[in-house]
Amino acid sequence: MNAPLVIVGTGAAGYALLRALRQIDRDRPLVLITRDDGAAYEKFHLARALGARTRPRGLVLATVEQMAHRYGATILAHRHILRIDRLRHELVMREGRHGYGQLVLATGAAALREPGLRGTAASQALTLGSLADYAYLRSELAGRNRVVVLGGGLAGCELADNLARSSCHVTLLEPANQLLAETLPALSAARVAQALQAAGVQVMTEDGIQRIDQGPDELELTTLAGVRFPADLLVLARGVVPRTELARDAGLAVARGIVVDPALGTVDPDIFALGECAEIDGRLFRLAEEIEAGAQVLAEVLCGRKRRMRWPARLRRLQIESCPVTVCEPPPLAGEWHEAATQRGVRAVFRDRRGALRGFALLGDQVAAAERLLGELGR
Question: What does the angle CA 335 – CA 338 – CA 339 come to, to the nearest 5 degrees?
């Protein structure tokens, strides 16, 4: 009997690929292996759910048993893969070995820890990168409402806004001189900061956390500037790092992510990678739409068709209640932002040296213009 196609991971990428494969081939043997319980959920909606105090089980779209039955797949949960034996086409697990014909790594990304964080309670810093993280953070919020969020990017701003609107006292710290420094120009970032402050968030830029110590009844935080204040919880929102250990240990090419070609293949013709763990020409998968597009391409490739990844427009949305943000990030090229404020929003466009529109950021009452501006990109 031929060895099955094995997908490592049951996150957004793993399950997107499962769905895409079953649209093409209903009968091919498929095995998914995951280190968690295999429940399907929307990872990108965790911050909003936390603000609404949604119970963890309310986020589960389908259990592992339901996914296995619905898509005719074998899903092995709570497995711990130690290494890939490329010579024997086997995964070496703590629980035994499992053969594969073709292998897809969909291992996702882990929340980035703060490497310089010191103190007696440094291990108590929390993250929000999985359903398990969500369940733990939600339980820790019970009866405690002083929360410090470290990281003023998209994830940190959205988390701070949702926590503040659920009656938490929130401090948002960002080491850069503005929020969303890698995403928005100055005026737009300032408008986001104002919206967060209006929601009750204390915004502190050009500062971070150097120590977190356990006091008698609370955490004691010390910022890089030497400011000390009490808190109940510290949540790290400094981004994510692709999980590449299995690929690296197997001798596959790894840069920031697992290096794949536009057909999602690695240097091993039988191993592929998809999702937040992978990169194509230095570009990482960051958005749900990108992962879905990649899954469609890879499903066809695995079924013998020739396809190449075509990136969808990178539209990122920040769900701040009083100031929604839609961003189409410009590519890394020379140009400049042009911003114009309205009474209830900001319109920012990025033009290259020829004057062509290459990206935009829309805030508040300007977000409705996103689709029209998408059609003007490159002109």
Answer: 150
Residue 365 belongs to a domain: yes
In a domain, 265, yes or no: yes
Residue 61 lies in a domain: yes
Say which CATH number the domain at 102 has.
3.50.50.60
Among candidates 200, 149, 169, 163, which has minimal Cα distance to 53? 163
Whether residues 201 and 276 fall in one domain: no
* Rounded Cα distance, 163 and 200, in Å: 10
pLDDT tens, 17-68? Answer: 999 999 999 999 999 999 999 999 999 899 999 988 899 999 999 999 999 9
pLDDT tens digits, one per residue of 239-298: 999 999 999 999 999 999 999 999 999 999 999 999 999 999 999 999 999 999 999 999
User: How many domains does one find in the chain?
Assistant: 3
Return the amino acid letter for 188.
S
3-state secondary structure of 313: coil
Question: Are 24 and 95 in the same domain?
Answer: yes
Q: Which of 215, 236, 257 is at the close of a domain?
A: 236
Same domain, residue pair 246 and 221: no
User: Cα(284)–Cα(257) distance, rounded to whole angstroms?
Assistant: 7
Displacement of CA 146 from its chain's centroid (Å)? 25
Instruction: List the alpha helices (DSSP H) in 167-287.
Output: 186-198, 245-249
Which token pair is 375?
């059609």
Domain around 53: 5-110+240-302
Beta bridge partner(s), residue 332: none
Mean pLDDT, residues 343-362: 96
99 shares a domain with 119: no
Residue 317 resides in a domain: no
Rg of the chain over Cα atoms, rounded to whole angstroms, equals 22
**Per-residue model confidence (pLDDT) at position 336:** 97
The residues that bridge with 318 in the sheet, in sequence order, are 325
Q: Helices marked H in the chain — which ranges? A: 12-24, 46-51, 64-71, 131-140, 154-164, 186-198, 245-249, 288-302, 370-376
Out of 214, 236, 258, a domain closes at 236
Q: Tell whether the model's pLDDT for residue 143 goes beyond 90.
A: no
- Where does residue 273 rank: exposed (0-12), middle (13-18), buried (19+ CB within 10 A)? buried
Give the list of residues 6+ apart from residue 345 with CB closer than 8 angstroms, or none: 191, 323, 362, 363, 364, 365, 366, 367
